Amino acid sequence: MDELVGGTTTDKRLLAIAARVQEGQRVSFADGVYLDEHADLLFLGRLANVVRERKNGNRAYYNTNVHLNPTNVCVYRCVFCAFRADLKADRAYTFSSEMIRQRTLEATGSGATEIHVVGGLHHQKPFDWYVDVVRVIHETNPRIHIKAWTAVEINWFSFITKKPVDWVLEQLIEAGLGSMPGGGAEIFDPEIRDRICEHKSDGQAWLEVHRRAHQLGLRTNATMLYGHLEDTRHRVDHLQRLRELQDDTGGFQTFIPLAFHPENTGLDHLDSPSGLMDLRVMALSRVMLDNFDHIKAYWIMLGEKTAQVALSFGADDLDGTVVHERIYHDAGAGTPEGISVEELHRMIREAGREPVERDTLYRHVIRDDQGWSIGEPIETMLATGA
Predict the structure, then answer these.
(1) What pLDDT was estimated at residue 378?
(2) Which of 122, 365, 373, 381 is a plausible cystine mate for 73, CB 3.0–4.6 Å?
(3) Cβ(192)–Cβ(154) under 8 Å?
(4) Are 309 and 329 contacting, i.e. CB atoms less than 8 angstroms apart?
(5) What is the DSSP-derived secondary structure letter of residue 65?
(6) Between vectors from CA 286 to CA 281 and to CA 287, what angle results, nearest 5°?
(7) What is the pLDDT of residue 163?
(8) pTM for the whole thing?
């Protein structure tokens, strides 16, 4: 235990929490709050690294992916969002089917295994338009995995069609949907959620959409937006609710803490989260979410250097090449709009980890002169030591 905590504390409660983490036991809500408020960053980081290496050894994962944000027109006016636009705004746009097809062909040519689709809730577009986004991608390249539409969007589709969430998801699966991203979670606690995204579907609705998706066999991701109006208890509550749903369904693949970028938003009077806060939230998430296999350091939001350090603070995944991402760049993200596989390898190796390419469903991607193929699930590789 002395080696684990590095002699950085004599706090008996912190030492007791560390002992439970070392033994693979669950951390309570109260323990999570205490860790965030009393543990120094290196102590918390060491705890997170114990969990990270227990689950993933020395590997760090990435995928080759392209983003598609098919429209920025949105019925909601979330104060934290810099991406949305009014229908008649100069910066408003909507992709045509041909534009979607071209983006898919571009992704295919670059060797991408995934297209990540999220966007605005265009109030003049029927549900069939959103289904067709998925269908056009799938018909253009049936092999590429489509990770599309957040729980907020699914909830909107249910509202405009007056159909149950299950029906909405079944239509999308039939069109080619492979999994769901984790966006739209923001912060579940209504005290904060009502202040940053009033009128948008609430935290319980977000969780219920993911529950229904898991029951239909879809794997999904989970997120949390931090560094705005929330405090420790809101973050820990958010993590606990995700953990409880994962206990029930086992359908979450990875958790992605998302750092709030205030530039160009209604909260631009706030400071961005510091790098130290980024690492603290990453580490606490890894310790709390004992039933999640993966924690992602989304380099687009964190910046490349902080993302590298995060690989020693609980994260085991850097996301991917992320070409054509618009949502966080519109909010002031200064990171590149896309990155090469070679650069991802460099980032991971500099952090002392071994890069492993995965697909969306965390299966090993094997590349050769003929292209790419899907190998074993990551969990199998870990179990066999491959």
Answers:
(1) 86
(2) 122
(3) no
(4) no
(5) E
(6) 100
(7) 98
(8) 0.91
* Residue found by looking up tokens 């952090």 in the block: 351
pLDDT band at 2 (very low <50, low <70, confident <90, very high): very low
State the pLDDT at residue 8: 66
Ramachandran region of residue 274, left (φ > 0), alpha (ψ -120 to 50) or beta?
beta
Residue-range domain boundaries for the chain: 2-54, 60-384
CA 181 to chain centre: 7
Hey, which residues does 368 pair with through a beta bridge?
371
| DSSP letter, residue 128 | H
pLDDT at 339 over 90: no
Instruction: Dump pLDDT digits (tens) for 247-304.
Output: 999 999 999 999 988 777 778 888 889 999 999 999 999 999 999 999 999 988 898 9
Average pLDDT over residues 5-11: 67
Distance CA 14, CA 28 (A): 13
Contact status, residue 275 vs residue 325, Cβ threshold 8 Å: no
Domain at 60-384: CATH architecture = Alpha-Beta Barrel (3.20)
Distance of CA 278 to CAs 45, 52, 143, 298, Å?
A: 11, 17, 35, 11
Tell me the mean pLDDT in the region 310-320. 95
Question: What is the predicted pLDDT for the residue at 258?
Answer: 94
Compute the distance between CA of residue 304 and CA of residue 45 in angstroms, rounded to an integer: 18
* φ/ψ of residue 82, rounded to 5: -105, -5
Alpha carbon distances (Å) from 34 to 26, 78, 358: 14, 31, 35
Q: What is the mean pLDDT of the chain?
A: 90
- Looking at residue 102, its pLDDT comes to 93
Rounded Cα gap, residues 65 and 81, in angstroms: 23
DSSP-H helix ranges across the chain: 2-5, 12-22, 29-38, 41-56, 97-109, 127-140, 151-161, 165-175, 190-196, 203-215, 232-249, 275-288, 299-302, 304-310, 327-330, 341-350, 378-384
* Alpha carbons 113 and 304: distance in angstroms, whole number: 22
Task: For residues 120 and 106, give the distance between their C-alpha atoms in angstroms, rounded to a whole number.
Answer: 22
